[in-house]
């Protein structure tokens, strides 16, 4: 395609050059197509001036593409020929032109001639030629697949690869043209594969710059690739637990290709193949016994074949066949261990064990034998079950135990495993120190070796135990494991599949051995235990904080440690965050991992706070739930101080007032209880020396009023309706007599109600002027010594019956204390303070408590008749 | 390349010289290809004999199978296959010496090739296009040729100084105007006699193997 295109272009150019210009130059060598030139070589072309050409050789100019070639490359041969030599490079595929330019103002036409150069490389010899004819059905395929390495150099020009195949001695040669550029493979159809003949195959690579060839000649079987062995089977034999028999069928008839076989096998659990030496399977066989295998082990077997004496290609491996060898009796003892948990007065011993490493079959059951203090204690057959490979017993602290266990499979019993548990006070020493670290997501444990012990104790090995904590109550499997390491090792990596974020207690035990009899006894020393995590994470949950005490400026916080299972790592510290209400201005305090309470100080009083506690591991932190609290308004004792101060103040005030009262009691008394003249001491009582006191009492102008204390019973029945009225008059300030301007009547406590006032207005005529006689019972003042006082009244009010009938008055006086006291006084004797001639009332010196104040019911009784007395009015 | 216009004659002379050289090489290659003895040098005597015997044994077996297939497909009785037919080569190996007998095998193998081709063509016409007999015959022809090459090499070893006569692959002489039955009978007879020939060829080569042919030739310096 490329060459035809260039040819067309070239012809067009020639047509143009020849048809429209007079051309008198020509280049040799010349070609109707492109001229292939080898990269790196020199190429010489000569430009000839034809006869009749008006140019000379000096006029000739060479151009490659559009670029002029330097004159130094020119070689003037004669007057009509100039050659040019150029070194070919890979990018020089272009026109090489020879021109004789038209002179200016000349009639001579311009002459030009060109040849197309195509740069390229000669082909490289194909390397590593190989041809394969695979097996098809029962014969070898006639299609021969050949491949080779064409080399990395691009020839730049059209290059063909052809594969030939021929059976020497025959005239027929098969051929296949490989169409790909820089072909690497090709298929030759031989029509019939030449069985048992010599086959010659060669690949020929050609281009314009040369050809190369690679050849193979060999027996035709060399090119054949058989199928893998057919029907490969692996058989077991009951009596031979260490062997398997492999059988197969020949994939191809021996008359075509006689084969030898190769067998390889591996354990299912391994990736390493073991190949049976070829010398063992060299013959034309169809079965083979694999020996020295492990009992009760699954093996994978594969086969392949090759022509006899390696006269063909290897076949592919056959599909894998898996078979298990039969059982043999266990070759090693079970791995016995114990976990001891001290109880109050004994020890809880859990015996745990693993199946023998070389179980050589499926373990059916274990025989466990326990001796205590060298006496047979108990023996059990325990069915082999992953869930029940443990046995618990109680062992008193003062007893030692010796445990033996044997495993059984269908073929027999294992060697015996023994373990001694000493008395609690007879423990052997442990390792000095132990530490752990994490490497490649596994725990690496390091410890210090134990010192040698006196004979007969010898260090046998170390045992590393790991126990997951906390242990779930419902966990059926014991969350523990152990690993034994040789006695000369002090650092090892735990091969356990420890869970991330779970805490394990890692213990290192030295295991000692001694031989009291024929059997070695093994006894662990004291363990050294450390908690560990194979990977730590942030805690699952944060602690819940509670406020136990809230004060004015402080609050005591308490939080409980979250469950160990949720720690997911070692708690390195707790951080307490607190803020006022919704301000989000968090303050924090950090405390150690063992602190579970804290007192926040410098808080504002009577303020709402939000607080939470964040637990942190090295892998992260998690906050607990928020808690809100409010600080108190008062601090401790403040209220008590205030109460005490107030009380004391009140007390002092009271005492002060009392003192004042005591000191100024006279003044107070005068203020509170102004002295009321005692009517009995009134001069009125001794007044009117012209007529007898008893017979000539003024009936019209003076009315006698019983004041204050009345004994209701002392009054006559007919006075009951009248006395209240009199009393009203006496109590009424307004209706008190203006005589003497009685200030004692000013107390509002003794004023009568308005209605009473009205009533009294009705009962006492305003027109009647009268003089009121005031009793000493006012305000509790009981005039004891004052005689009844009489006052002249200008009232026109008719006098009461008692007044009208002195008899009655006398009778009443005999009952009334007032009158009784009055009667005791001698008529005409006045109080010493009072002037005999004065008509004003004098205050009575009161020395006794007021009977009114002490006996209020008496006063009440006095009012009752008054009420009834109003009604008839 | 370095000739110039003035030396055009020089260029043409050099081209002719090259052509003659190439022609000579081509003739040499053709002769080499045609001459079967060239291949014999690639293998030792024992390898040659072993391969030849295996191939002949294989072809004997294959011919037996092909004959069974042929009889089954053509519904033929064994009697027909044993009929006398003059134009078909005989399977009898003749000769007094081992070399003569091997030469007889070689000659017969060459004689059978055109008959096998004819039977194959007839089978293609009779049961196109997937005729197992035709396909088997096609492969058989190739293998018989290969056996002939091997036997030729054996002959070279057995009698290195005597030229091996090459029987021409001449026409079978069987008239084209055969009816179908005649064609089927002809095919069966050819295959039967070929099978007999190959069986005898196996025996002859076995006798060669037993006769320590290769040891003798080794001693002779072959």
TrEMBL record, chain A:
Entry membrane topology: Single-pass type I membrane protein
Gene3D superfamilies for this protein: Immunoglobulins (2.60.40.10)
Membrane in keyword set: yes
Region annotation Disordered: where it falls in the sequence: 733-873
PROSITE patterns in UniProt: FN3
Biased amino acid composition, Low complexity: 760-773, 850-860
Gene Ontology terms: cellular component: plasma membrane
Domain named Fibronectin type-III: residues: 228-328, 333-427, 539-634
Keyword tags: Glycoprotein, Immunoglobulin domain, Membrane, Receptor, Repeat, Signal, Transmembrane, Transmembrane helix
Signal peptide segment: 1-19
Compartments (UniProt record): Membrane
Bilayer-crossing regions: 641-662
Major subcellular location class: membrane
UniProt keyword Oxidoreductase present: no
SUPFAM superfamilies membership: Fibronectin type III, Immunoglobulin
Superkingdom field: Eukaryota
InterPro entries recorded: FN3_dom, FN3_sf, Ig-like_dom_sf, Ig-like_fold, IgC2-like_lig-bd, Type1_Cytokine_Rcpt_Type2
Coiled-coil stretches: none
SMART domains documented for this protein: FN3 (SM00060)
Homology family: Belongs to the type I cytokine receptor family. Type 2 subfamily.
Protein name: Interleukin 6 cytokine family signal transduce
UniProtKB/TrEMBL annotation, chain B:
Cellular component, GO, one term: cytoplasm
Keywords carried by this UniProt record: Cytoplasm, Developmental protein, Differentiation, Growth factor, Neurogenesis, Signal
Role description: CNTF is a survival factor for various neuronal cell types. Seems to prevent the degeneration of motor axons after axotomy.
Alphabetized Pfam families for the sequence: CNTF
Domain of life: Eukaryota
Entry's localization field: Cytoplasm
Organism: Cyprinus carpio (Common carp)
GO term, biological process aspect, one: nervous system development
Family stated for the protein in its record: Belongs to the CNTF family.
Name of the protein in its database record: Ciliary neurotrophic factor
Signal peptide positions on this chain: 1-36
UniProt keyword annotation of Cytoplasm present: yes
A GO molecular-function annotation: growth factor activity
């Amino acid at each position: 395609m490329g060459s035809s295109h260039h040819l067309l272009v070239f012809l067009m150019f020639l047509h143009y050059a020849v048809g429209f210009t007079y051309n008198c130059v020509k280049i040799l060598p010349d070609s109707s197509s492109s001229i292939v030139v080898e990269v790196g070589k020199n190429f010489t072309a000569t430009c000839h001036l034809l006869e009749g050409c008006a140019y000379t050789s000096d006029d000739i100019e060479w151009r490659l593409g559009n670029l002029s070639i330097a004159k130094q490359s020119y070689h003037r041969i004669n007057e009509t020929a100039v050659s040019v030599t150029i070194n070919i490079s890979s990018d020089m595929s272009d026109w090489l032109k020879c021109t004789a330019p038209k002179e200016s103002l000349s009639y001579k036409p311009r002459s030009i001639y060109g040849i197309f150069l195509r740069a390229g490389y000669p082909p490289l010899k194909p390397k590593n030629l190989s041809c394969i004819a695979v097996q098809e059905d029962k014969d070898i395929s006639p299609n021969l697949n050949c491949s080779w390495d064409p080399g990395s150099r691009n020839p730049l020009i059209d290059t063909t690869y052809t594969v030939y195949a021929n059976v020497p001695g025959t005239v027929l040669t098969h051929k296949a043209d490989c169409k790909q550029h820089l072909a690497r493979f090709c298929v030759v159809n031989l029509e019939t594969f030449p069985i048992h003949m010599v086959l010659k195959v060669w690949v020929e690579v050609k281009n314009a710059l040369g050809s190369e060839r690679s050849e193979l000649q060999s027996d035709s079987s060399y090119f054949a690739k058989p199928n893998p062995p057919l029907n490969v089977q692996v058989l077991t034999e009951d009596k031979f637990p260490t062997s398997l028999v492999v059988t197969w069928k020949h994939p191809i008839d021996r008359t075509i290709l006689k084969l030898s076989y190769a067998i390889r096998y591996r354990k299912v659990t391994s990736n390493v193949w073991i190949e049976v030496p070829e010398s063992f399977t060299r013959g034309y066989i169809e079965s083979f016994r694999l020996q020295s295998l492990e009992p009760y082990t699954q093996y994978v077997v594969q086969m392949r074949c090759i022509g006899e004496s390696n006269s063909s290609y290897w076949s592919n491996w056959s599909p894998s066949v898996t078979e298990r060898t039969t059982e043999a009796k266990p070759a090693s003892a079970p791995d016995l261990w114990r976990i001891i948990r001290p109880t109050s007065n004994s020890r809880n011993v859990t015996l745990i064990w693993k199946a023998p490493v070389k179980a050589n079959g499926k373990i059916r059951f274990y025989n466990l034998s326990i001796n205590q203090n060298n006496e047979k204690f108990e023996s059990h057959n325990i069915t082999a079950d992953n869930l029940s490979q443990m046995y618990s017993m109680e062992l008193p602290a003062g007893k030692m135990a010796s445990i033996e266990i044997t495993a059984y499979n269908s073929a027999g019993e294992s060697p015996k495993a023994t373990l001694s548990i000493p008395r609690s006070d007879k423990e052997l020493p442990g390792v000095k120190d132990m530490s752990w670290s994490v490497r490649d997501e596994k725990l690496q444990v390091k410890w210090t070796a134990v010192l040698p012990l006196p004979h007969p104790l010898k260090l046998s090995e170390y045992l590393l135990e790991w126990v997951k904590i906390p242990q779930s109550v419902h966990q059926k499997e014991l969350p523990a494991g152990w690993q034994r390491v040789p006695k000369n090792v002090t650092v090892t990596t735990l091969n356990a599949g420890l869970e991330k974020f779970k805490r394990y207690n890692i213990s290192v035990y030295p295991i000692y051995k001694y031989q009291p009899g024929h059997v070695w006894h093994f006894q662990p020393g004291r363990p050294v235990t450390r908690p560990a995590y194979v990977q730590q994470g942030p805690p699952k949950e944060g602690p819940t904080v509670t406020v136990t005490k809230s004060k004015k400026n402080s609050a005591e916080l308490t939080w409980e440690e979250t469950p160990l299972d949720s720690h997911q790592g070692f708690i390195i510290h707790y951080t307490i965050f607190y803020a006022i209400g919704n301000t989000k201005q968090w303050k924090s305090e950090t405390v150690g991992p063992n602190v579970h309470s804290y007192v926040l100080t410098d808080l504002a009083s009577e303020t709402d706070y939000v607080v939470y506690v964040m637990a942190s591991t090295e892998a992260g932190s998690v906050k607990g739930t928020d808690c809100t609290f409010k600080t108190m308004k008062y601090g401790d004792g403040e209220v008590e101080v205030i109460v005490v101060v107030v009380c004391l103040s009140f007390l002092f005030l009271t005492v002060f007032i009392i003192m004042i009262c005591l000191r100024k009691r006279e003044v107070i008394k005068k203020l509170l209880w102004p002295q009321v003249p005692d009517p009995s001491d009134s001069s009125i009582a001794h007044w009117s020396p012209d007529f007898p006191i008893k017979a000539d009492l003024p009936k019209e102008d003076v009315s006698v009023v019983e004041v204050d204390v009345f004994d209701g019973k002392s009054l006559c029945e007919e006075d009951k309706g009248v006395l209240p009225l009199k009393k009203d008059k006496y109590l009424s300030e307004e209706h008190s007599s203006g005589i003497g301007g009685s200030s004692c009547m000013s107390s509002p406590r003794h004023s009568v109600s308005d209605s009473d006032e009205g009533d009294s207005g009705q009962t006492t005529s305003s027109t009647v002027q009268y003089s009121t006689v005031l009793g000493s019972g006012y305000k509790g003042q009981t005039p004891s010594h004052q005689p009844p006082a009489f006052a002249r009244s200008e009232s026109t009010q008719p006098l009461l019956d008692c007044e009208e009938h002195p008899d009655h008055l006398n009778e009443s006086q005999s009952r009334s204390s007032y009158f009784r006291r009055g009667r005791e006084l001698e008529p005409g004797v006045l109080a010493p303070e009072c002037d005999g001639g004065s008509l004003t009332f004098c205050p009575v010196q009161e020395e006794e408590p007021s009977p009114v104040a002490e006996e209020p019911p008496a006063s009440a009784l006095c009012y009752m008749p008054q009420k009834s007395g109003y009604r008839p009015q | 390349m370095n000739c110039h216009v003035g030396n055009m004659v020089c260029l043409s002379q050099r081209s002719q010289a090259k052509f003659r050289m190439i022609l000579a090489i081509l003739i040499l290659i053709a002769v080499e290809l045609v001459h079967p003895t060239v291949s014999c040098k690639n293998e030792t005597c024992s390898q040659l004999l072993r391969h030849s015997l295996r191939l002949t044994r294989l072809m004997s077996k294959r011919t037996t199978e092909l004959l069974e297939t042929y009889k089954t497909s053509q519904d033929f009785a064994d009697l027909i296959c044993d009929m006398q037919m003059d134009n078909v080569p005989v399977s009898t190996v003749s000769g007094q010496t081992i070399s003569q007998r091997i030469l007889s095998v070689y000659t017969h193998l060459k004689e059978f090739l055109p008959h096998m081709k004819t039977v194959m063509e007839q089978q293609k016409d009779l049961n196109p296009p997937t005729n197992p007999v035709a396909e088997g015959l096609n492969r058989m022809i190739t293998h018989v040729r290969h056996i002939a090459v091997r036997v030729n090499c054996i002959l070279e070893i057995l009698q290195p100084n005597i030229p091996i006569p090459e029987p021409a692959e001449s026409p079978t002489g069987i008239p084209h105007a055969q009816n179908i039955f005649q064609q089927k009978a002809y095919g069966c007879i050819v295959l039967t006699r070929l099978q007999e020939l190959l069986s005898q060829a196996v025996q002859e080569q076995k006798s060669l193997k037993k006769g320590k042919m290769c040891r003798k030739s080794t001693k002779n310096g072959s």
